[in-house]
Amino acid sequence: MTLAFIVPGLDEATSEKAIAILQNRLSQEQEAALVLKHAHWNVTGPNFIAVHEMLDPEVESVLAQADETAERIATLGGTPDGRADAIVRGRTWKPFDVEGRAGTEEYLKALIEYYDAFIAEDRKAVAELDELDFVSSNIIQDHVQQLEKFQWFMRSHLA
């Protein structure tokens, strides 16, 4: 990887490691926005409208997270890769497995499971970034807080 520049206080090797972690998070953030929109379009049942409307702010938030992550990669001198093949090529998590139309309960249970892996990967990234770049770590920490809140909404809906 060739960096355009290096931010003050970080060396090239540290920057490259942080960028690689952030690129992985960017890919999952982009995928998560697509997964949430897929659920939004295809959820069915008596609680359809509540779940349908609950997912829109989550999509917007996750897209904003992806934008923030991509901007951090660029700030560190890297080139964020937002192409669809980058998501698939860099996937380290289990893909979302509900296809087509399904009931609200099925979608929410699958989204909770997806969020379990998403949040775990973000927490792992936070731990790794703490050692490399506290600014990048703080960004992902903020993302985790939002994701945990959204997952709580989903769990509460099922309860």
UniProtKB/TrEMBL annotation:
InterPro entries: DPS_DNA-bd, DPS_DNA-bd_CS, Ferritin-like, Ferritin-like_SF, Ferritin_DPS_dom
Residue spans crossing the bilayer: none
Residue ranges of every copy of the Ferritin/DPS domain listed in the record: 19-158
GO MF terms, alphabetically ordered: ferric iron binding; oxidoreductase activity, acting on metal ions
Organism superkingdom: Bacteria
Similarity comment text for this entry: Belongs to the Dps family.
Protein name stated in the entry: DNA starvation/stationary phase protection protein
Protein's organism: Bifidobacterium olomucense
